[in-house]
Amino acid sequence: MKFLIQKLTVYFRDGQEVIDFDQISYFYGRMGAGKSSIVRLIDYCLGGKFILTPALQRDFVGAALLIQLEDCKLSIDRTWLSEFARVEWQSAEDDIVYNANISIRNPMGEIIAETGVETLSDLIFYLSKRKIPKVRVSKTSDKAELSRLSLRDMLWYCYLDQDNIDSNFFHLEGSSSPFFKKNKSMDVLRFILGFQNEVVANLEDDLNKIRTERTQYETYYKGLADVLLETETGSSLEIQNQINKLKIELTKIETEIKEQKEILKEKNTSNAAKELQNICRNISIEINNIDNTLHELSISIDNDTRHLNEISGLSLKFQRATSARAILNGVEFESCPRCTQELPTRDYNCCKVCGQLEDNTQESSNFEIVKSDVFTRIKELNDIIKIQNTNFTNLTNKRKTIIINQNQAEMALNEAMKEYDSAYLSNIIQRQKKIGSIEQKMKNLNRLLLIAKKSDFYQIQVSRLKIREKEIREDLQEAKDRAEGNDKNIRRLQQYFKDCLIRANFPGIQKSSLVVISPKTFIPTVYSGDTSKGEKPTETTFLNVSSGGKKTIFKACFAIAVHRLALELKAILPNILIVDSPMKNISERENQDVFEGFYNMIYSLASDKMKETQFVMVDKELFLPKAEFNLLVKVRHMTPNEDANPPLRRSYRGL
Q1: Which among 146, 394, 399, 612 is placed 20 to 30 Å from 118, CA to CA?
Q2: In terms of C-beta distances under 8 Å and separation of at least 24 residues, what long-range contacts does 363-370 make, across chains too?
Q3: Where are the coiled-coil regions (predicted)?
Q4: For 134-157, how does the pLDDT look when each residue is reduced to its tens digit (9 = 90+)?
């Protein structure tokens, strides 16, 4: 998998340090110069942990890493102690620059829709056009959940750090490493060797999806089955049979109601009730008309009585006015009777008080005429009122008689309705109530039928998925058997590991030595000795090599062999190998053959079989490649106190 580091930028409070990389980058020099900090910062940008050295404790802010992947460049910027990284990338397919904040380790939801990319590791696989690798949590059950195989797990074979290069063998030995790390390390090798090839991974992914879907359907089915069990309704077929029976019963009752109605028509029970209803209705109309007439008569009597009283009052006023005039007619007024002032002189035919003309010619005759008219009008009104009162009384009596008839008619109607109800309600209304009950039952059963049909659907889906799950499980087992049965790749790994050990002049290893790698543990064992002479072969493993120097070479050679095989198989392993201090426990002078042999082996492979692999070497001394290798090595000599060969933090002077 193409993974080339182009540049590391280290940010300080007062500036930054930029470190460029090539196919081979070589950092060497005295201790305390920050050589190991460079590769640890690379690891930090990729999600690792980093302990600040004294040189960085005051001023370190963060670091940024620029990586070339398949067809795009990825920039990873991580500040100090942050669990997130700022990433930026641009694909060769377009000119768009993408950027995002992404979690270093813990999935926090997709940052690119429908890709499954949730962490920095996922993003690197995605941009490398690789499917995010997943393995089963449990190795003993194919029903176990799938979990991500992180880039961090693969970096165990890409970054041999100084602290652990001689203390553990890729966490495979188990005794000094947590069990889960051992499993993850073995998963990485399975992917590289093809034991966990793409066919197996896809089948496991399909199996996991189908199992999840089946579990959901089983949950739905169980829930609906419990509901049906509580209602005691049975299966969808039983519910449908109940509905059909209710439909037959409903049709039967509707037919009986229709027949009963025909029988009632023949008995004319309803006709007698209708005649009495018409009589009662006519009586009510007549009573209403009488009430309206009585109301109008009452209003007319009141009006005529009021008119009579008004005429009588006016007649009395007229008589009083006439009498007063007669009395005052002979009085000679000298002063005003109101204000007592002296009256002015008036004409002989004018009133002495008001000055108006007086007409006494028809006084007596007018009074008699008015008196006669008033008497006549009063008599007429009295006659009219008398007639109206008589009519009012007659209508009131008539109303009482009609009320009696109405009560009798209503009693007869009630009797007829009782007879009608006993004939109709007892035979039809009860059946109608039963129809309502049946329809409600059918409504409830139809609801339960929908639930039952949904339950049947889920049950069918569960059965279908179980069959499909079984088929995939069989295909998966067959694919696993094919992958693990083919030991060609593990034989090639044995061959490459032996070749690396011989080239590196590893003590005690000859061409006649035999390397065996167990496909179950992936721990290599080197058998040496001449068995033809009856010698018992010696076994060399990482665990029984007492020398720390041998352990570093042993582990580094195995990592190189793994990378060489991964290149040939185009496996998912990033094609970068960082080795921090392979000569950690080896003297370049006392073990010059090992020192030179190890680096000549790297340069030889880098110029031929491993041209696509990027090497980052950190060591005490420098060993440059021979001219015949035709390699350019980017070298940086680092010391803690020389301006010509400055440390990582150029202004720092100390240990």
Answers
A1: 612
A2: 363/325, 367/318, 367/322, 370/315, 370/318
A3: 200-270, 462-496
A4: 776 655 555 556 677 899 999 999
Residue burial 604-639, b: 16+ Cβ < 10 Å; e: rest? bbbbeebeebbbbbbbbebbebeeebebebeebbbe
My answer on whether 423 and 512 are in the same domain is: no
- What confidence tens digit (pLDDT) does each residue in 577-590 have? 999 999 988 887 88
Identity of the residue numbered 650: R
Range of the domain at 331: 267-432
Q: At 381, phi and psi to the nearest 5?
A: -65, -40
Tokens of 228: 């049906």
Question: Which residue, among 544, 547, 561, has the nearest Cα to 503 in the 3D structure?
Answer: 561
pLDDT (tens digit per residue) in 394-426: 888 888 888 888 788 778 777 766 655 555 556
The answer to whether 590 and 498 are in contact (CB under 8 A) is no
Q: Is residue 27 part of a domain?
A: yes
Contact between residue 62 and residue 81 where contact means Cβ atoms under 8 Å apart: no
**Residues 152 and 34 both lie in one domain:** yes
Give the whole-angstrom CA distance, residue 387 versus residue 603: 145
582 and 492 within one domain = yes
Burial label, 581 (beta-carbon count in 10 A; 0-12, 13-18, 19+): buried
What pTM, to 2 d.p., does this model score? 0.60
The answer, yes or no, to whether residue 175 has pLDDT greater than 70, is: no
Torsion over CA: 468, 472, 475, 477 (sign): negative
